[in-house]
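Per reviewer request, we include the raw input and output of the structure prediction for the construct analysed in the revised manuscript.
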Amino acid sequence: MTEAHNTLPILYSLRHCPYAMRARMAIFSSTQPVLLRAIKLSNKPPEMLELSSKGTVPMLVISAEEVLEESLDIMLKILSAQDPHDLLHQQQPQTLPDMLILIRRFDVQFKAALNNYKCAKRYRESNLTECRQACEVYIQELELQLNKHQFLMSEKESLVDIALLPFIRQFSKVERQWYQQSPYPLLRAWLTKYVQSPMFTKVMAPHPLWVECRQSIIFGDL
């Protein structure tokens, strides 16, 4: 690893964590390299815990004085610096506040409904249908958006698409057969396009755990 690479930001990440997934997607889209350190929650690196007592992922270490611990903060920081695909829609500055309102509503409200849905399925609870229907309120909203344009905010990809993607993917996996027959064909096509893309393959590639190999992976540099 070159001396220049030693100055790169460090991303502590967990492969299947939806928050880490969307942070990696933003970094990949920005084409700004970071040093990726893959971890598992049962064996967190002491270097990580020294910087943050929370010990959650994703965590982006820009410097000892600048450590970002929220996925949305990481996405905004990275894309504000370099956004070749204009995910922030910077030519329409009024759009970003609308994006953030939608993302935060899904992060809070939809995520809570999704957790209940996953638990109902896992523990075979009698209220599975009711839990799914609570999620569908939000799923229907996205289907309506995709009926208007190709992506969730407009005719081009945005921050919203990659921010919501990991959670919609989780929703699709709870009752796979029901989902495949559900009345949301546009959302299914949107999700399928993403999960079958080269971007998603690279973002979801497995890496050796940093605590075991002490090997930082250069990620995001196209």
